[in-house]
Amino acid sequence: MLNIIYGEVEKDNYIFDPDTFFNHQSEDAWLEDEFTKEMVKDVDQSEIIGPHLVQSPFLGAIPPEKLSGGVKTLILIANDNEHIYNASACGDNCAKWLLKIGENKDVTIRLGYLMNFGKGPFQIHVVNTNKIVNNLEELDDEVIDNGLLQQVTK
Amino acid sequence: MVDKWMNKLWDRKDKILVGKYDIKIYDNKVHYHLIVKRNITIIQGNSATGKTTLIDMLLDYSQLGKNSGIVEVDENVLENTYDYADSRYYPSWERFYTAYLIERTKDTVLHYNKARINEAYLTEGNLEKIRAQLPEQIEV
């Protein structure tokens, strides 16, 4: 299931800047994975040729370090279970992939804004209040009514 | 965290952009045209829409200027053309603008050629700008 911590996170395994973290910690195998290739194709409209080469329709041939911050974060979340990643580096077009990752495993991310997860139905566990919500309206109400974006989780 | 950022911004308030600015930034791969209206600008949007690329280009340009390979358009040339269009070299402002455009867009995706219009200019947005300049009697 997808677990979301809203607001600020102060934990040792929290990664505030996944874009930079990816540049220094990504593994070749992650970029050869079919699920990664699907995400990159959908979000960046780019094709992974190999672990060190991506073909972008806008930028030409680029290294993986030039992928978008959003898709880098998705790749980290999908492949690394040791860290909590700041998914505010992802735009709304990453939401469906976060839900898909959450269908395959238990994963915890941080959000600092109201991401649009679509109409649903879906299941998201809001860590701050320990509540499971089933659609976007329930999720947004949970976050706004409890002032979660201003909370600090330690 | 937000408070810390706001304090930093406040310390730099004299250097923050105020008013309305028409900004064009491009290299040989991407081209941005922004109109910034507020004193603080927040760039947000879907992933892979070029936010980081824009910031990286601004950083490169602020560090290296023209040597970065990034082109800025000087609005001062448009507003004070008489200071630039030396009549010893340009018999008309049109000739000056043509030469200026060719020079500034050389080796970029927007390279200008008077004999044949570069397709990069043939956008709906540019057509709209031309339409807006035409007298009411002319319909396109």
From TrEMBL, chain A:
One Pfam entry name: DUF4869
Domain of life of the organism encoding this protein: Bacteria
Protein name: DUF4869 domain-containing protein
Classification lineage: Bacteria, Bacillati, Bacillota, Clostridia, Lachnospirales
UniProtKB/TrEMBL annotation, chain B:
InterPro entries: P-loop_NTPase
Protein's name in the database: Uncharacterized protein
